[in-house]
Design brief:
It is a single chain. Helix content is 46%, strand content 22%. The chain contains 15 helices and 17 strands. The protein has helices at 11-21, 43-49, 53-58, 67-79, 126-182, 189-215, 227-243, 264-281, 337-347, 371-385, 403-414, 426-435, 452-461, 478-484, 503-521, and strands at 27-32, 37-41, 85-94, 100-112, 115-124, 223-225, 247-252, 260-262, 288-297, 300-307, 351-357, 361-369, 395-399, 419-423, 440-444, 469-474, 495-498. Strand 16, helix 14 (478-484) and strand 17 (495-498) form a beta-alpha-beta unit. Helix 5 (126-182) runs antiparallel to helix 6, helix 7 packs parallel to helix 8 and helix 12 (426-435) packs parallel to helix 13 (452-461). 25% of the residues are buried.
């Protein structure tokens, strides 16, 4: 139990409340209203905001609130002069680590021995607000998905209806050609030009219909996929529309492009999203070119899409694949296109890299394993499922305050041939990575002295990670933990392992990191 620092004339009041409040799940602060200082802090508020009790007693009462909340807190204190209690909802509080939480605060005035105190009860609603936001986003996503599904059904129906009159036109063309031959007019140049124009137009319509049907086909089964054919078919759907805005395509496709493991409809959807974004980015230009190239390097295939448009601000690039994030004005973008693209690329075991400069344009580089490579990976995964991992030649740092966990993970990793070192906390780990480069860093989140989050933040700021891959270990869900505590760091981890994890899961984690390192180094 925390030691409480109090002044003699407050002892009697605080003794009567202390035993109760020290077992509260909600945070409690007692404010000496006349002296404008905190007289008591329970263990829950210390955990919530990160301060020790004696730190509360020494600070200004406004130190736990941002300036934007000071007026509201002042008004609340004035209101309590007239009434005994009130509830102030959704107040932002600042923790010792400069992060923020949201709280509902129940305030009550207490008069004792002619002195006035305010009792504050803090209920942390950060996690609740996170769940509410996730629920709202899910509802929006369901509504958008429903509209997209309806649009897909309409497009599929339209494609089907076009095919019927197209078939009739083609039949009549064949009949007329036979009739012209019977009338010995098949060599008439004027008639030949008319028939050629009609035939070319119907063929063009047929290709568009075929593209629409494949685009709206929801079969997501995976098999061999020729990415060059996907690209040319997608461009065939858009070429006419884009030419009206003076947007052209420049292709440089690899000959005999190796097959990928993928799905035609999903891959086409991916390419059309990229082309749509490129077209939008160049709308301010008098004319524009979308450059598309494919290259085959060993067992990898790269697809590059380049535009000459407005570009993306550097600070926004990390967020462009987030759901509902868009750089477009309100009403011009849903924010789901690139999120959908990222999901498709992940399903195809691919990797995406973005280069962009404002006013210069954007380059998306997609890297996929070949079909044969995926088959090999599946075989390796089967071996991993059996508890076998391929040999490692990586240097790995394990950071955990529990010696049994450090020793067990070291035992597993040493069996793979990896070179393993250990650290007991983030501070010790910082010294390790200053002295030596590690390919992989596996760190627990909750540790004394310096936790895993603080360790990685420091390593980022000191530019010590370089190309190191980071794996977090935690007993709680990392995304919920990160959002609830508002840890705001770029790319904090490549993978998060949920404790307790098995040897098989650890080996699968290593395999996944190895694949990513091979792609990024190639």
């Amino acid at each position: 139990m925390n030691k409480i620092f109090i002044i003699d004339d407050e002892v009697e009041l605080l003794k009567s409340l202390k035993q109760l409040f020290d077992h509260f799940f909600d945070g409690v602060l007692i404010l000496n209203l006349e002296e404008k200082r905190y007289a008591y802090a329970n263990s829950a508020i210390c955990t919530m905001l990160g301060y020790a009790p004696k730190e509360f007693y020494a600070m200004d009462i406004m130190d736990i609130y941002p300036k934007s909340e000071h007026k509201k807190i002042d008004e609340e204190i004035m209101c309590l002069e007239e009434k005994d209690q009130q509830i102030t909802e959704d107040i932002t509080c600042i923790t010792k680590y400069a992060t923020t939480i949201s709280a509902d605060i129940h305030s009550k005035k207490i008069d004792f021995n002619s002195k006035k105190f305010l009792l504050y009860i803090f209920r942390d609603i950060t996690f609740r607000k996170l769940l509410e936001r996730e629920k709202e986003e899910m509802q929006r996503k369901v509504a958008i998905s429903s509209r997209l599904s309806l649009l897909g059904e309409m497009a599929s129906g339209i494609a089907h209806e076009i095919n019927n009159p197209l078939y009739i036109i083609n039949l009549h063309l064949e009949n007329w050609e036979s009739e012209l031959a019977r009338m010995h007019l098949e060599n008439n140049e004027n008639l030949r030009q008319i028939f050629t124009a009609i035939s070319n137009s119907t063929e063009r319509i047929s290709k568009i219909v075929k593209g629409l049907k494949s685009y709206t086909h929801f079969d997501e089964s995976f098999g061999q996929l020729n990415i060059n054919e996907v690209i040319t078919t997608s461009i065939g759907l858009l070429k006419s529309m884009y030419s009206k805005d003076l947007i052209t395509f420049e292709l440089n496709l690899a000959a005999n492009s190796p097959m990928l493991m993928g799905n035609w409809g999903l891959a086409q959807q991916m390419m059309i999203n990229f082309f749509s974004n490129a077209k939008y980015a160049m709308k301010a230009l008098p004319q524009g070119v979308i450059k598309v190239s494919t290259t085959a390097v060993l067992d990898l295939v790269r697809v590059t899409i380049v535009d000459e448009g407005c570009g993306i601000p550097e600070e926004k690039i990390p967020n462009i694949f987030d759901p509902f994030f868009t750089t477009k004005p309100v009403g011009e973008g849903s924010g789901i296109g690139l999120n959908l693209v990222a999901s498709i690329i992940k399903k195809m075991r691919g990797h995406i890299h973005v280069d962009s400069k404002v006013g210069k344009g954007t380059t998306f580089t997609l890297t996929f394993p070949t079909f044969e490579r995926v088959l090999v990976l599946e075989q390796e995964k089967a071996s991993s499922d059996a508890g076998v991992v391929k040999q490692q030649n990586n240097t790995i740092l394990i950071v955990d305050d529990e010696p049994n966990i450090r020793n067990l993970i070291s035992l597993y990793l040493n069996a793979t041939g990896a070179m393993v070192e250990v650290a007991e906390n983030g501070k010790q780990a910082l010294l390790k990575i200053q002295a030596k480069k590690f390919d992989i860093i596996i760190t627990d989140i909750m540790m004394p002295i310096m936790n895993g989050i603080e360790f990685i933040k420091c390593a980022h700021s000191m530019k010590l990670l370089n190309q190191s891959k980071v794996v977090f270990m935690t007993g709680v869900d990392f995304e919920v933990y990160k959002n609830a505590r508002n840890f705001n760091i770029d790319s904090p981890a490549d993978i998060c392992l949920q404790k307790p994890f098995s040897k098989k899961e650890l080996y699968q984690c290593l395999d996944s990191l190895q694949i990513n390192m091979e792609m990024s180094h190639d």
